[in-house]
């Protein structure tokens, strides 16, 4: 039997419109369990940010959010990391996220689960692995005989594992660096 034109290799390795719809729907549904980014900064963390009036020429800065120059006699809000921004800009910035736009210093959140996970970086990776494996071995996929869907899933899983591995490596490097600093090996 001849393969239909346009196919390279086995035509069963291709996904048709129905298979594509199933794949898209499954990815959308499985993606709902994975959080994108960090939760917003807590209201108390935002409300306690100190206001700093710019009094000297050397204190003049550019707000990294709106890019405007903060001039003498204007007021900024200062984050614990030391970076300053226009008050309105940083409050708007911190409503959907909890980190400094310059250095990614994280402010506390009202999300107790996230705060607990922050104490143990490996738990974040563990949770990500669990959701990936759940997605990969979902009943829908186990019942599917479409080899291109399986190849897609396996390739996607490989990419996610590589991504998580780099995250694990980053965590280990940071822990090692902090440990070296604590015992005085590096300044």
From TrEMBL:
EC category name: transferase
Catalytic activity: S-ubiquitinyl-[E2 ubiquitin-conjugating enzyme]-L-cysteine + [acceptor protein]-L-lysine = [E2 ubiquitin-conjugating enzyme]-L-cysteine + N(6)-ubiquitinyl-[acceptor protein]-L-lysine
GO MF annotation: an example: zinc ion binding
Enzyme Commission designation: 2.3.2.27
Domain RING-type: 63-104
Top-level lineage group: Eukaryota
Keywords: Metal-binding, Zinc, Zinc-finger
InterPro entries: Znf_RING, Znf_RING/FYVE/PHD
Name this protein carries in UniProt: RING-type E3 ubiquitin transferase
Lineage: Eukaryota, Viridiplantae, Streptophyta, Embryophyta, Tracheophyta
Gene assigned in the entry: CIP8_0
């Amino acid at each position: 039997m001849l393969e239909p034109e346009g196919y390279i290799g086995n035509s069963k390795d291709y996904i048709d419109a129905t298979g594509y719809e199933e794949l898209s729907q499954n990815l959308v549904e499985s993606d709902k369990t994975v959080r994108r980014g960090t939760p917003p900064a807590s209201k108390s963390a935002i409300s306690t940010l100190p206001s700093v009036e710019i009094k000297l020429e050397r204190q003049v800065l550019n707000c990294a959010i709106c890019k405007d120059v903060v001039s003498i006699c204007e007021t900024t809000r200062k984050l614990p990391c030391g970076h300053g921004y226009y008050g309105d800009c940083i409050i708007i910035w911190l409503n959907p996220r909890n980190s400094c736009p310059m250095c990614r210093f994280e402010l506390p959140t009202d999300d107790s689960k996230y705060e607990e996970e922050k104490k143990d970086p490996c738990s974040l990776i563990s949770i990500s692995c669990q959701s990936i494996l759940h997605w990969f071995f979902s009943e829908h996929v186990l019942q599917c005989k479409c080899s291109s869907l399986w190849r897609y899933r396996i390739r996607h899983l490989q990419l996610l594992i590589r991504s998580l591995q780099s995250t694990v490596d980053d965590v280990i490097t940071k822990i090692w660096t902090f440990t070296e600093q604590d015992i005085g090996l590096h300044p």
